[in-house]
Design a protein that fits this description.
This protein is of the alpha+beta class. The chain folds into two domains: 4-99, Beta Barrel (OB fold (Dihydrolipoamide Acetyltransferase, E2P)), CATH 2.40.50.140; 126-172 and 207-450, Bira Bifunctional Protein, Domain 2 (BirA Bifunctional Protein, domain 2), CATH 3.30.930.10. Helix content is 30%, strand content 25%. It is built from 13 helices and 17 strands. The chain has helices at 7-11, 60-64, 115-120, 129-151, 210-220, 256-277, 279-288, 293-302, 310-318, 336-347, 397-406, 415-422, 435-443; strands spanning 4-5, 18-31, 35-41, 49-54, 71-80, 88-99, 155-156, 162-163, 175-176, 203-205, 222-230, 243-252, 306-309, 351-357, 373-381, 385-392, 428-434. The strands form three sheets. The chain has an eight-stranded mixed beta sheet with strand order 7-11-12-17-16-15-14-13, with helices on both faces. A hairpin with a 7-residue loop joins strand 5 and strand 6 (88-99). The longest helix has 23 residues, at 129-151. The protein starts with a strand and ends in a 20-residue tail after the last helix. The structure holds 4-amino-1,4-dioxobutan-2-aminium adenosine-5'-monophosphate and magnesium ion. 4-amino-1,4-dioxobutan-2-aminium adenosine-5'-monophosphate binds next to strand 12, strand 16, strand 17 and helix 13.
Length: 463
């Protein structure tokens, strides 16, 4: 039996005038009574390969079934193409329809469906050029992330998905339980008796692997996590999903400057890697989705990121001479509109903001000596706003305990975290990169729902 060749192999092969076997899905078909031109795609590359079928060589019943969306196997001769638009094509010798796609009901008939519509048929949107490109890039980006850290001696650490702690104080978490919701066991005071739950205590899906990541870094020096995280915030924006993937490196002996250097180098490496390895897909997205995409990627690579403080950012925003939807005041968190103003209008490059007010940041961030700010760092990107959040960590036990008391965080629950500050504590830092946010930036897709295969958002968990 002949071995199947992928479209990628066939288009990349200079070796013509040979028998090949192709399998894939019909994208389009045109032609007339004499000859059919069938574009076949198998997802291995953005391009389809053209199959030329002389009508009289094939039974009418077979050719009738060769319609958009059907899957076919073609055996034929790979030849140089006389036509424009492709270098090679296949002169079909045998055609077998593997699976029909009734044109009366197959939803991907016409070109140019809206992304909103395609979200409703997320099970089929992989078959479009745009989503093929996005998900090939998603793969390549995952691979590049592992490569980057592996080459630099970081260890990939698998932190738990189910957790009994609320690391961020980020609030809304998804409860994990095996209790029967129709018959919830209660204690005498009426509260839920979690001792009868699976873990004997309340548990949730994690919002971040950081706290466990720190435990790893304080022995292995440099680790990273790369896994799903969950947030039950009711945020219906183009930049939030309830289930997203986060990359969280954590490094012993790094201060905030080392942390910023790593974040900038990491982001530039990833963008460069995708530009080198996913050129065809990027070129397509640049043409069809966002005409300034490649320009923007180049631009980020060219300039050093601007580094300044939160306090300075607030000063700039207050002087901006324009009204924002949300107020700008020292002590309040910055919103996407503020972040984008700083990046797109003021500095015109990515910005790393540091030294945020302690009141709007998590308990574990290293406290500055001014008693007001913490050694946080957020990396802000064009189009996206915050793409990375991180900090140097508080390594002093007493300061950490004080802050936890102030913020009503239970020291009993986090006894294991505190012990790393009791035994051989060291300066250390880390950050979290939102995988889908970076994918949005790299693909030019403007809605986060379009860079994750099956998005989870409030009131939506189809597929
Ligand atoms: O700023 P965040 O909340 O930081 C942390 O979770 C830290 N524990 C990270 C660390 O220091 N190890 O989240 C980090 C990043 C954000 O900058 C953003 O890119 C992304 O995660 N993110 C989301 N992405 C999609 N949907 C959401 N709902 C997101 N929330 C945060
Ligand atoms: Mg953040």
């Amino acid at each position: 039996m002949m071995k199947r060749s992928t479209v990628k192999e066939l288009l990349g092969s200079g070796e013509t005038n040979r028998e090949v076997l192709l399998k894939g899905w019909v994208r389009t078909r045109r032609g007339n009574n004499q000859v059919a031109f069938i574009a076949v795609n198998d997802g291995t590359v953005i391009h389809s390969i053209q199959v030329v079928a002389v009508m009289e060589s094939f039974p009418e019943e077979v050719m009738k079934r060769v319609t958009t969306g059907s899957s076919i196997a073609v055996r034929g001769l790979l030849v140089e193409s006389p036509g424009k638009g492709q270098q090679v094509e296949i002169q079909a010798g045998e055609i077998e329809v593997l699976g029909d796609a009734d044109p009366a009901v197959y939803p991907l008939q016409k070109k140019g469906h809206s992304f909103e519509f395609l979200r409703e048929i997320a099970h089929l949107r992989f078959r479009t050029n745009t989503f093929g490109a996005v998900f090939r890039i998603r793969h390549a980006l995952s691979f590049a992330i592992h490569q980057y850290f592996h080459d630099r001696g970081f260890f990939y650490l698998h932190t738990p998905i189910i957790t009994a702690s609320d690391a961020e104080g980020a609030g809304a978490m998804f409860r994990v339980t095996t209790l029967d919701l129709d018959h919830i066991p209660r204690k005498e005071d009426g509260s839920v008796d979690f001792s009868q739950d699976f873990f004997g205590r309340p548990t949730n899906l994690t919002v971040s692997g950081q706290l466990e990541g720190e435990l790893g870094a304080l022995a292995l020096s440099s680790i990273y996590t790369f896994g799903p995280t969950f947030r039950a915030e009711n945020s219906n924006t183009p930049r939030h999903v309830a289930e997203f993937w986060m990359i969280e490196p954590e490094m012993a002996f790094y201060d905030i400057h080392d942390n910023m250097d790593l974040a900038e180098d990491f982001l530039k490496y990833l963008i460069r890697d995708i530009m080198e390895n996913c050129g065809d897909d990027l070129e397509f997205l640049n043409r069809m989705v966002d005409k300034t995409l490649l320009e923007r990627l180049e631009f980020v690579l060219k300039h050093p990121f601007e580094r300044t403080t939160y306090t300075e950012a607030v000063r700039i925003l207050r002087k901006a001479g324009r009204t924002f939807e949300y107020p700008v005041e020292w002590g309040l968190d910055l919103q996407a509109e503020h972040e984008r103003y700083l990046v797109e209008q003021h500095f015109e490059r990515p910005v790393i903001l540091t030294d945020y007010p302690g009141g709007i940041k998590a308990f574990y961030m290293k406290q500055n000596d001014d008693g007001k700010t913490v050694r946080a760092m957020d990396v802000l990107f064009p189009m996206i706003g915050e793409i990375i959040g991180g900090s140097q960590r508080e390594e002093k036990l007493d300061r950490l305990q004080n802050r936890m008391r102030e913020m009503n965080i239970s020291a009993d629950e986090l006894w294991w975290y505190l012990e790393t500050r009791k035994f051989g504590t060291v300066e250390h830092s880390g950050f979290g990169l939102g995988f889908e946010r970076l994918l949005m930036f790299i693909t030019g897709m403007s809605n986060i729902r379009d860079v994750i295969p099956f998005p989870r958002t409030p009131r939506s968990a189809e597929f």
